[in-house]
Automatic annotation (TrEMBL), chain A:
Keyword Kinase (UniProt): no
Domain RING-type: 34-77
Species assigned in the record: Hermetia illucens (Black soldier fly)
Localisation per UniProt entry: Nucleus
One Pfam short name: zf-ANAPC11
GO biological process terms held by the UniProt record: anaphase-promoting complex-dependent catabolic process; cell division
PANTHER family tied to this protein: RING BOX
Gene3D superfamilies for the chain: Zinc/RING finger domain, C3HC4 (zinc finger)
GO MF assignments: cullin family protein binding; ubiquitin protein ligase activity; zinc ion binding
Pathway the protein contributes to: Protein modification; protein ubiquitination
Name recorded for this polypeptide: Anaphase-promoting complex subunit 11
UniProtKB/TrEMBL annotation, chain B:
Taxonomic lineage of the native organism: Eukaryota, Metazoa, Ecdysozoa, Arthropoda, Hexapoda
Signal sequence annotation: none
Gene3D superfamilies documented for this protein: Cullin Repeats, Cullin, Chain C, Domain 2, Winged helix-like DNA-binding domain superfamily/Winged helix DNA-binding domain
Molecular function in Gene Ontology: ubiquitin protein ligase binding
SUPFAM superfamilies found in the cross-reference section: Cullin homology domain, Winged helix' DNA-binding domain
Protein name listed in UniProt: Anaphase-promoting complex subunit 2
Length: 85, 778
C-alpha cells in the first residue's frame, strides 16, 4: 500500500517570539492587542528595547510620551532604546 | 223568594260565571241594564261583583289552568309537541276571550252601579283579571313546560331560517333535488312548512293577546336563540381563520334572528308599525342582548382556537382582527390569557416537542399576539411560561443561533435582516410617542407592576424577545462564537460574504464590543489565505516541499478554547510543517506558529491492489494510515505511544479505516493491514454499518470544560482565603468570591457550580472536605 498526501490543510496559532507572555504596561497577553486597538498581530505589533524588555508598541510609545524628562524602560528603569532588529 | 230566584236566574244569564261556567250567552245591553237595575234595587250589586271575581279565581284554578297544563303531561316528542302546544294555547285563548266578554259586562256593571270600591277603581277589570290569570297559570307551571316551548320554537325557527336561505339562493334551491324539506323534515311534496308557519303565527298572536308571550316563552326563546347563535358561529367560523366573519355574523343576526323575533312579537308581520313603541323596545332589547352574545360566542370560539391561529399567523390575521373588535365590546381578557397560557403549555411545553419547534411557536406567538395587542402587555403575560421553559432546555441557545444564521422555519434570519432599518425606526417611534400623547393609554391592570428599566423592552422586536429568554446577551454571543469557530474550522464550508453579513447584522444588535472576537476570527481566516499564497510563492519553501500545506492561522486569544485532543504527527510530516513555519517566520518577523495537528483536513491518495482511492480525512486518520505504510501490523499500545493518542480514542479513529475495509483487528488490540489478496474478498458494504460521524465532532472545548476553565481563575483566591481563615463552608466561599473576585472578570457562577468545582479539587487531593467545611491539606 502506498499513501500519498495530496494536500494538507492544517490549523495553527501564531505567537510572538518573546521572553515574556504579557505586556508589562497593559498586562494584556502579547497575542492580544493593546487597549487602544481592536485587531492583534500586524495592527498592534511588539517592540523590543535594548534592555530586552518588550511591549506593545502603542503602549510603550504612550508611556514614553508621558515621561517628560528621562525615557526609561518601565520594567528595569534603564534608559529606553528601541532595539531595531 | 221567587222574585229573588228570578233575579238570580237573570243575573246568572248575564254573568254565567256565577254558575261556574264560561259558556257564552247572547244577551243585549238592555238585558244587562235590566239586571243591574233589579240588583241595585236589592242592594246586591257589590256582592255580585265581588263574587264574580271569586268565581273567576275558582274556575281558573280548577278548570282552565289544569286543562292547559294537562296537555303537557305526556312526554313531549318533537312531532306532536308542536301541535300539543298549539292546541293548548288555542284552548286557553278561547277561554280567555270568553272571559273578556264577561269582563266587558262587569265593567259596564260597575259603571252603572257606581260601586264605591275605591281600591278597585285604580285598576280596570282587565288588569285585575290578567293579574289573577297569570298568577294562577304560573303557579301551576309544569316541569317540562320549557322543553315543550323550546321544541315549538325550534321547529319554527328552522322553518324560518330555511325559507330565508331559500330566498337568498333561489336558483340554487331549484337545482337541488331534496327528498326532505329542510324546514319541517317531511318529504318535499308533503312539506307542511306553510301550515306550520300559520299555526305558529296564530299561537303567537294568542299568547301576545293574553300578555303571556314574555312570561311563558321569553326565557326559552332567549335560550333557543343563544343556542342557535352558538351553533351558527361554530358552523361558519370554526377552523377558518383567513376570513373576517364579524360582518356576516352581524348581518345574519340582524336579518334572520331579529326578523324572526319581530314576527313573534309583532303578531306575524315583520314590519313594526310606527306607533308600536312596546314591540319596538322589546326587539331592540333583544337585538342588543343578542349581539353581545354573538360577539362573546365568536370571541370565545376564536380564543379557543388561538393556538392554531398563532401557528398560521400571517394568514390568520383576519381572525385576530375580528377578535380585536370583539374584545373592544366584551371584556374577555382574563379568559383569553388563561386559555392561551393553557393551550401553549399543552401544545408546546412538554418534552415531546423539539426546541426548534418551540422557538418557531414562540416567534409566531410573538407576532400574532403583538398584532392583537400592540402594547405588549398581553404578550408579556402569556409568553412568560414559554420563556421559563426554554430557559430549562440546554440547546435553546444553540437553536436560536442556528435560527439566526441559517435559513430555518423560525424566520429568525429574516428578522435579523430586517434589523438593518431598526435604528432609524426607534428614533421615529420616540418622536411619535411625544406627538401623540393625547392618545396615550395607561397599562391594563393585569400588567406587571414591576417598573421596567427600559421602556422599550416591551415593544422590543422579535430577536430581542428571543434573546431575552436568558436575559443576557453574553451567553448568546459566546454560543455564536463557538458555533462560528466550529463552522470555520471543522465544517470548512465557509462562505465569507454570508458570515460577514451575519456578523454585521448581529453587531447592530449586540454591539461591537461583544462581537469583537468574532470579527477577529473572520479576519484571521481571510488573512490566512493571503499568508498562504505568500508562502506558496516563497521559492525557498515551495522548492523543498513534499506535499502542499495550507493553513488557517488563528489569533489564539480571540478564539474559544480548543478541546484537549492531542496528536503527534510522524516525523516526515512534521518536517514539512517545520518548513512551513520557517517560511512564515521569515515573512512575519518575530512571530512563529504553534501547530494544532488534530484539526485540519487531509486529501490522501491511497494506492492499493492496483486501484487508487482518493479520500478526504482528518489528520489523525491520515497519521494512522501513514504508519501502516511502514508496517503491516501494529499493536494498539505501540501506535498510541507514537501518536500520543490515548488508546480509547485511537481505537475509535482506527475504526474509520476498518469501515473503509483497509484495516482489520486481527487479535484484541492488534491491527493489521488487509493485504491485497484479501482485499478483493472483503465486501466494503459489510462493514459500512460502523460508519462514524467524525465530521460532526467539534474542535472546540465543550461548554462545561470552558466553564471549568473560567472557575479555575478563582482557585488562587480560594487557596488564599483558606490559608488565612483555615476552614470555610461553601456558602461563605461563594459569598466571598462574589464580593471580591467576580467583579473584574464579569464571570458569574452559582453555588452549585462552585460546589462541583470544589469537589473536583477534593478528588485531586488539593482540598479536604470535612464536617461541612473545606480546608487545605496540611
Amino acid at each position: 500500500m502506498k499513501v500519498k498526501i495530496k494536500s494538507w490543510m492544517g490549523v495553527a496559532t501564531w505567537r510572538w517570539i518573546a521572553n515574556d507572555e504579557n505586556c508589562g504596561i497593559c498586562r494584556m497577553s502579547f497575542e492580544n492587542c493593546c487597549p487602544e486597538c481592536s485587531l492583534p498581530g500586524d495592527d498592534c505589533p511588539l517592540v523590543w528595547g535594548a534592555c530586552s524588555h518588550c511591549f506593545h508598541m502603542h503602549c510603550i510609545v504612550k508611556w514614553l510620551n508621558s515621561q517628560p524628562n528621562s525615557q526609561q524602560c518601565p520594567m528595569c528603569r534603564q534608559n529606553w532604546k528601541f532595539n531595531i532588529q | 223568594m221567587t222574585d229573588i230566584d228570578a233575579v238570580w236566574e237573570r243575573t246568572c244569564k248575564v254573568f254565567p260565571i256565577l254558575k261556574k261556567t264560561l259558556s257564552e250567552t247572547s244577551v243585549g245591553n238592555e238585558d244587562i241594564e235590566h239586571v243591574i237595575r233589579e240588583l241595585s234595587a236589592l242592594g246586591l250589586c257589590e256582592s255580585v261583583y265581588e263574587s264574580a271575581f271569586i268565581e273567576f279565581d275558582f274556575i281558573l284554578r280548577q278548570q282552565i289552568v289544569p286543562r292547559f297544563w294537562k296537555h303537557f303531561e305526556s312526554v313531549p316528542d318533537p312531532d306532536t309537541g308542536f301541535y300539543n302546544f298549539q292546541l293548548a294555547v288555542h284552548e286557553l285563548y278561547s277561554d280567555f276571550s270568553r272571559a273578556q266578554e264577561v269582563l266587558r259586562r262587569l265593567t259596564l256593571f260597575r259603571q252603572v252601579c257606581r260601586l264605591k270600591n275605591q281600591e278597585k277603581v285604580a285598576k280596570s277589570e282587565e288588569a285585575t283579571f290578567d293579574e289573577l290569570f297569570r298568577s294562577v297559570l304560573l303557579s301551576q307551571l309544569a316541569a317540562n313546560f320549557n322543553d315543550i316551548v323550546y321544541a315549538f320554537y325550534k321547529v319554527s325557527f328552522r322553518i324560518f331560517a330555511n325559507s330565508y336561505d331559500n330566498n337568498d339562493q333561489d336558483e340554487f334551491a331549484e337545482d337541488m333535488i331534496e327528498l326532505n324539506c329542510n324546514g319541517c323534515g317531511k318529504e318535499t311534496e308533503r312539506c307542511r312548512c306553510q301550515e306550520l308557519v300559520c299555526a305558529f303565527n296564530t299561537t303567537n298572536k294568542h299568547l301576545y293577546k293574553m300578555h303571556l308571550l314574555d312570561k311563558l316563552a321569553g326565557y326559552t326563546l332567549t335560550n333557543l336563540i343563544q343556542e342557535r347563535i352558538t351553533a351558527h358561529v361554530e358552523e361558519t367560523c370554526k377552523g377558518v381563520f383567513d376570513a373576517s366573519h364579524i360582518k356576516n355574523l352581524q348581518k345574519w343576526l340582524d336579518t334572520i334572528v331579529i326578523n324572526w323575533l319581530t314576527r313573534i312579537f309583532n303578531r306575524g308581520s315583520s314590519k313594526i308599525s310606527e306607533g308600536d313603541g312596546y314591540t319596538h323596545n322589546v326587539i331592540e332589547n333583544f337585538r342588543i342582548k343578542l349581539s353581545y352574545f354573538l360577539y362573546e360566542t365568536y370571541a370565545k370560539l376564536i380564543i379557543d382556537q388561538f393556538f392554531n391561529i398563532i401557528i398560521d399567523f400571517p394568514d390568520s390575521q383576519l381572525a385576530i382582527d375580528d377578535l380585536k373588535v370583539c374584545l373592544e365590546k366584551i371584556d374577555l381578557r382574563k379568559h383569553l390569557i388563561k386559555t392561551l397560557k393553557q393551550s401553549l403549555e399543552a401544545r408546546l411545553l412538554h418534552p415531546g416537542v423539539n426546541t426548534m419547534d418551540i422557538l418557531t411557536g414562540y416567534v409566531a406567538a410573538i407576532k400574532a399576539i403583538r398584532h392583537l395587542d400592540p402594547s405588549g402587555v398581553l404578550l408579556e403575560t402569556t409568553t412568560e411560561p414559554i420563556k421559563e421553559y426554554l430557559r430549562k432546555r440546554s440547546d435553546t441557545v444553540r437553536c436560536v443561533i442556528t435560527g439566526l444564521t441559517e435559513e430555518g422555519p423560525t424566520d429568525l434570519a429574516e428578522e435579523l435582516a430586517k434589523s438593518e432599518t431598526l435604528k432609524e425606526n426607534v428614533d421615529v417611534k420616540g418622536k411619535d410617542e411625544m406627538l401623540n400623547w393625547e392618545v396615550w393609554n395607561p397599562d391594563p391592570i393585569d400588567a406587571s407592576p414591576v417598573p421596567r428599566p427600559k421602556r422599550t423592552s416591551r415593544s422590543a422586536d422579535i430577536i430581542s424577545m428571543v434573546v431575552d429568554i436568558y436575559g443576557s446577551k453574553e451567553l448568546f454571543v459566546n454560543e455564536y462564537r463557538n458555533l462560528l469557530a466550529d463552522r470555520l474550522l471543522v465544517q470548512l464550508d465557509f462562505n465569507p460574504e454570508k458570515e460577514i453579513r451575519n456578523l454585521e447584522l448581529l453587531k447592530l444588535r449586540f454591539g461591537d464590543s461583544l462581537l469583537h472576537s468574532c470579527e477577529v476570527m473572520l479576519k484571521d481566516i481571510s488573512d490566512s489565505k493571503r499568508i498562504n499564497s505568500h508562502i506558496q510563492s516563497d521559492l525557498n519553501y515551495s522548492n523543498g516541499k513534499a506535499f502542499p500545506i495550507s493553513s488557517l492561522i488563528l489569533s489564539s486569544q480571540f478564539w474559544p478554547a480548543f478541546n484537549k485532543e492531542t496528536l503527534e504527527l510522524p516525523d516526515e510530516i512534521q518536517d514539512e510543517f517545520k518548513k512551513y513555519t520557517t517560511s512564515y517566520e521569515a515573512y512575519k518577523g518575530n512571530r512563529t506558529l504553534v501547530w494544532r495537528p488534530v484539526t485540519g483536513r487531509v486529501v490522501l491518495e491511497i494506492e492499493l491492489a492496483g486501484r487508487t482511492l482518493e479520500m478526504t480525512v482528518n489528520p489523525t486518520q491520515a497519521a494512522i494510515i501513514h504508519y501502516f505504510q511502514e508496517r503491516n501490523e501494529w499493536a494498539l499500545e505501540e501506535l498510541s505511544g507514537l501518536l500520543k493518542i490515548p488508546p480509547s480514542i485511537l481505537r475509535k479513529r482506527i475504526s474509520f479505516w476498518q469501515t473503509q475495509g483497509l484495516i482489520k483487528e486481527r487479535d484484541t488490540d492488534i491491527y493489521t493491514l488487509i493485504d491485497e489478496m484479501e482485499q478483493s474478498q472483503v465486501d466494503p458494504s459489510q462493514s459500512q454499518e460502523i460508519c462514524e460521524e467524525d465530521e460532526s465532532e467539534s474542535a472546540m472545548a465543550s461548554a462545561s470544560d470552558q466553564r471549568e476553565e473560567e472557575l479555575q481563575v478563582f482557585w488562587s483566591y480560594i487557596v488564599g482565603m483558606l490559608t488565612n481563615l483555615d476552614s470555610m463552608p461553601i456558602e461563605r466561599i461563594h459569598q466571598m468570591l462574589k464580593m471580591f473576585a467576580s467583579h473584574g472578570s464579569g464571570v458569574e457562577f452559582t453555588q452549585e457550580e462552585l460546589k462541583n468545582f470544589l469537589q473536583r479539587k477534593v478528588r485531586e487531593y488539593k482540598l479536604i472536605y470535612n464536617g461541612g467545611v473545606y480546608h487545605l491539606p496540611k
